[in-house]
Amino acid sequence: MVVAFNVTGDEHGDWAVLRVSGELDLVTSPVLRQRVHDVVAEGRHSLVLDLSEVFFCDSSGVGVLIASRRLIRSCQGRLRLILPAQGATEGSHVNRVLGALGVRRLFDVHLDVGSATEDEAGPLSA
Questions:
Q1: Residue 86: closest CA among 98, 71, 74
Q2: 46-57 and 78-82: which strand pairing?
Q3: Nearest by Cα to 56 from 107, 4, 8, 9
Q4: What's the sign of the alpha-carbon dihedral 116, 73, 46, 42?
Q5: CATH hierarchy code of domain 21-116
Q6: Tens of pLDDT along 19-67?
Q7: Helix, coil or strand: residue 57
Q8: What span, in angstroms and rounded, lies between the C-alpha atoms of 35 and 10?
Q9: What is the pTM of this model?
Q10: DSSP state for residue 85 in the 8-state scheme
Q11: Coil, strand or helix: which one is 43?
């Protein structure tokens, strides 16, 4: 079974939004890494990664998320992730993987683009 991986870009105010769908793994993670680098190269330092449609994430995907966080922080930027609420059936795999690895606390996590792009947005508790 071939699963389509897709990254689409959008803007929401001052925020660049990358919507990711499919499997985030060894084969597909370089695509996301390049898209994040492209956004930063364009001068966009406020980035939302919408991972609500990612149903599988391996260590390569987690590595890209951590590298993206490091890159954005080096530019004094802001990175926010969109992950479904715990217990949600769609896309909750990324949430579980980040939690199991103990790195979810590194990320500013939100439920949707609206809350993630608010200037005074507060992260969900881990």
A1: 98
A2: parallel
A3: 4
A4: negative
A5: 3.30.750.24
A6: 999 999 999 999 999 999 999 999 999 999 999 999 899 999 999 999 9
A7: strand
A8: 12
A9: 0.87
A10: P
A11: coil
